[in-house]
Task: inverse folding
């Protein structure tokens, strides 16, 4: 097309129309407007090269489009200290660029990565950069201290200072979970661990075994956890409970009180030794845990079983079979929960004295009465006389039997009454009969 035609084509290529808005990309203000108003659809290859070397346009490009446009920015700008530092202050979207890693090494100039003043300011903005710096900077106390103050996780990339209490405290102060990267000595340092769990109890899992069984540390973690939302609380409390092995702590009233505030089901995570502790097991049974979790010793201890059923009669359902035949245990259970009779042995389920006593206050006890007792219609009528509500709980077949029995009884009584009337006539009638006989 010739020189004039090429110029004409480039001019129209630089003028875009989007949604009725025209952008003349030859002008800086239009170029900036085009990027800001079309962050997703704007195309980098439409931006004139001279603007990719302009700090204002390049900054807006990175701000709106992130890593995708990093390679298009001029090398001169990636060597400009002020531009790179300003860019590092952008959203996390750009921080994911991982400046200094192999895939983006071409972006930041090597000269900048050798500039200690730049490094110092850069790690203050994004401590994660420590990972991609030379070893001499990873062993520089001042640089590392600045990095972990910005991002606690940067401690991972400074192994020399994972033993340094001052730097570790700075790291966990920024992010408690950076305790994960501290040395064994620091994980066993109470001041360091307390600092971490006070900020976030999730870090409890990184503490030493000794401190995971320290009362102060455990209480601090639990009290902090109690304030969390239920969904997050469950995960954190499970992490704490599963790591506490000290039997003394599990028996401690303060610890148990805090555990209750966090999770009523904490009993499920208790060490096996706790299921041989009477007080603990009784507390668990009150929360509907089965007595089958208790130790064999407690499951065969009559005195303990009586305490257990007095607290919750339904426990009778799960105790060993031989104790379901023990009158003292059955009476204790049914006194607390009359319907526990259904879990007793057949011997006590058909004991009429026990049934009669329980039926006074709870007609539903009839549900636990065995068939042979239900077939005793006279006994059932007796129970109905004690508590009329029993009638409504009886099976229809038994109700029919009771009605039939009562009808027979009624008819029999009526017949007897009528017979007596026939046999015993009034005195006047007897006198008349006598006079009639004498004077026909």
Result:
């Amino acid at each position: 097309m010739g020189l004039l035609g090429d110029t004409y084509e480039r001019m129209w290529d630089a003028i875009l129309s989007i949604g009725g808005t025209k952008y003349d990309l030859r002008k800086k203000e239009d170029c900036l407007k085009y990027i800001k108003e079309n962050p997703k659809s704007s195309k980098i290859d439409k931006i004139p090269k001279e603007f990719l070397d302009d700090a204002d346009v390049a900054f807006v490009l990175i701000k709106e489009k992130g890593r995708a446009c990093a390679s298009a920015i001029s090398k001169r700008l990636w060597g400009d200290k002020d531009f790179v530092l300003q860019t590092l202050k952008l959203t996390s979207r750009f921080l994911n660029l991982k400046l200094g890693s192999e895939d983006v090494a071409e972006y930041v100039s090597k000269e900048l990565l050798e500039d200690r003043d730049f490094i110092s300011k850069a790690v203050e903005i994004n401590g994660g950069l420590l990972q991609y710096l030379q070893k001499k900077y990873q062993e520089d106390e001042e640089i590392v201290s600045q990095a972990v103050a910005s991002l606690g996780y940067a401690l991972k990339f400074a192994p020399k200072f994972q033993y340094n209490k001052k730097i570790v405290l700075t790291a966990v102060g920024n992010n408690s979970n950076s305790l994960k990267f501290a040395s064994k000595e620091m994980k066993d340092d109470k001041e360091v661990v307390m600092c971490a769990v006070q900020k976030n109890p999730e870090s409890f899992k990184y503490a030493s075994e000794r401190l995971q069984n320290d009362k102060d540390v455990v209480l601090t973690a639990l009290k902090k956890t109690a304030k969390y939302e239920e969904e997050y609380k469950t995960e954190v409390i499970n992490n704490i409970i599963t790591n506490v092995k000290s039997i003394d702590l599990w028996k401690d009233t303060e610890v148990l009180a805090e555990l209750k505030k966090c999770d009523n089901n904490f009993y499920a995570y208790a060490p096996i030794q706790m299921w041989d502790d009477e007080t603990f097991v009784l507390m668990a049974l009150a929360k509907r845990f089965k007595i089958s979790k208790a130790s064999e010793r407690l499951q065969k201890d009559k005195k303990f079983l009586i305490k257990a059923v007095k607290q919750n009669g339904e426990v009778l359902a799960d105790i060993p079979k031989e104790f379901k035949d023990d009158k003292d245990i059955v009476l204790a259970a049914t006194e607390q929960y009359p319907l526990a009779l259904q879990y007793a042995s057949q011997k006590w389920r058909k004991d009429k004295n026990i049934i009669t006593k329980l039926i006074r206050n709870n007609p539903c006890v009839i549900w636990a009465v065995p068939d042979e007792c239900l077939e005793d219609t006279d006994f059932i009528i007796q129970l109905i006389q004690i508590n009329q509500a029993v009638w409504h709980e009886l099976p229809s077949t038994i109700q029919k039997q009771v009605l039939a029995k009562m009808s027979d009884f009624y008819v029999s009584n009526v017949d007897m009454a009528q017979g007596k009337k026939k046999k015993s006539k009034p005195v006047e009638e007897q006198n008349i009969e006598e006079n009639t006989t004498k004077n026909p």
Summary: The two ends are 163 Å apart (CA to CA). Confidence is low (pLDDT under 50) at residues 1-12, 91-105, 427-440.
